[in-house]
Amino acid sequence: MAITARHARYPFLAAAREAVTEAGVELETLVANDEPAVERARERVERALLAGRVDSETPDEWRVNDELLSYPLARILVSLLDSPAAIDKYAAAEAKTAIERLKTDLDSGDELRSTPSASIDRDTLVAELDLETAIQAERDAATAMDDPAWFRVGVGTYLELASGARGDGWRLVNRELVDGTVRVEREELFRLLRTAIRRRVAEGLPFDGLDEDAGIAAELSAQLTDLRRLLSERTRVGEIDFVARELFPPCIENLLQKAEDGIELEGFEQFTLMAFLTGIGMDADEIVAFCAESSLAPAGIRYQTEYLTDDRGTQYPPPSCETLSAYGICHNEDDHWKIAGHPLAYYQERLDAADADLVDWREQAAEG
């Protein structure tokens, strides 16, 4: 079985796994030879942790084989990170990217229909996830030839896949229940399928029996060091719940000004800004209002703040000043590393030293 673009776009499919097996590719050899798939795997995990997605920022650099083979390598990397939160974020990012690709396949058609090996239809995905008996499209004479707008989901499957969905609208008591099925809209079905894909990706992770000092794990030590730095950059500050822009670290202020000048922030820049703002206690609505006059889209802000936070608070704080410097974001303006080497720690130090009359931005916004 030849490796196709479809396998690369949907690497969790059984056919994709079979293609890798039949190709006879040894992952250990790929890593030992430092093949491009190794760097793509590192990028895949980094993008998952920082941006909540796994598609490459430079897709033209990678061959189809590199893209597909990066998936099993990424699963090894995320297993070696030894972090349940990282595995959860990685699986969620793979699922989000897959659903976005499915929507493209369904909606834009023309380009992908000319290369059918790259696309997938909803029925194929539903069958792949072993949900064909639990999910049925509603069809009538008016919609028989169109993409259906409504679906019926078996109540057991619905409860399982909607268990993590937020909002009262997902509660069974608020749903239309007929003959043991729950009626859902097309977009709601995408949400349920995303959960099913996330669980498929997370299945079997972390791998057992990986020895960091031997074999493929040892060969991946450089990639692991980079990824662990992203996970370990947590600063020891107390809970912050005060917004004073005049005390922001220079790098954060520079990112804000860049966005307010109408310039699109790169993925890592937006992650840094959103992680800082959530880290100082702002919720999604507040960040949308705070960044209203900028290039940042409200939908993007809401998605990333949901990704960054959970019931326990900020999951991934902004990177350290050292890492931001490596990305060209922090330039140690005014020698501020002497105050603190992390944006949140710097902000906390400045808050502690600030005048008692300092006013929270949220109070000013409420008055204005």
Question: In words, what does this structure look like?
Answer:
The longest helix is centred in the first third of the chain and has 24 residues, at 84-107. The chain has 368 residues and is mostly helical. The strands form two sheets. The chain has a four-stranded antiparallel beta sheet. Strands 5-6 form a two-stranded antiparallel sheet. The chain has helices spanning 5-9, 14-23, 27-32, 36-51, 64-80, 84-107, 110-113, 122-128, 155-161, 186-202, 215-219, 221-232, 250-260, 267-279, 284-290, 298-308, 321-326, 343-353, 361-367, and strands spanning 135-137, 150-154, 177-178, 181-185, 309-310, 313-314. Helix 6 (84-107) packs across helix 10, helix 14 (267-279) crosses helix 16 and helix 15 (284-290) packs across helix 16 (298-308). It has 19 helices and six strands. Helix content is 53%, strand content 5%. The chain folds into three domains: 1-119 and 206-232, no CATH class; 121-204, no CATH class; 237-367, no CATH class. Mean pLDDT is 86; it is low at 110-114. It starts with a helix and ends with a helix.
